[in-house]
Design goal:
two-stranded antiparallel sheet; alpha+beta
Length: 134
């Protein structure tokens, strides 16, 4: 499952540079699929939507740091534990019960974001939700 940042966040910024996917953004900052990934130009998302990886999307949160669920792999394929949670001084980086994914799905998401692999069809809902909020 993806990690989420709760409203207990103190905006220290410790988590942001630790994310291998660049899935963490400061509150109020727009996000892009290309940030911290190998995605570029037109990409086909698992939901069938084609979009520009460099296009900016509205922030998911404005008051504190947030994590884009479709870019979060819980550091699977990079580290043994989510690095945001490991460095958070107030323990506000928690598993997101709204985005439960298996280790295989997380690895497939990593492969899509970083290894030029086609998107896995069973992670469609995560991408739809990110864009609906945008």
């Amino acid at each position: 499952m993806a990690i989420r940042i709760t409203d207990d966040c103190i905006n220290c910024g410790a988590c942001e540079p630790e994310c291998p996917n660049n899935a963490i953004y400061e509150g109020g900052v727009q996000w892009r699929y290309k940030d911290g990934t190998h995605l570029s130009g037109q990409i086909l998302l698992p939901n069938g939507l084609s979009l520009d990886a460099e296009a900016a999307h509205p922030p998911i949160a404005t008051e504190y740091y947030y994590i884009v669920p479709s870019k979060c792999t819980e550091c699977t394929g990079f580290h043994e534990e989510p690095q945001c949670a490991a460095v958070c001084p107030v323990d506000c980086c928690l598993p997101d019960p709204d985005h439960v994914e298996t280790p295989a799905q997380l690895l497939a998401k990593k492969a899509f974001l970083h290894d030029n692999q086609p998107p896995a069809p069973d992670i469609i809902q995560v991408y739809l939700e990110d864009l609906e909020r945008a």
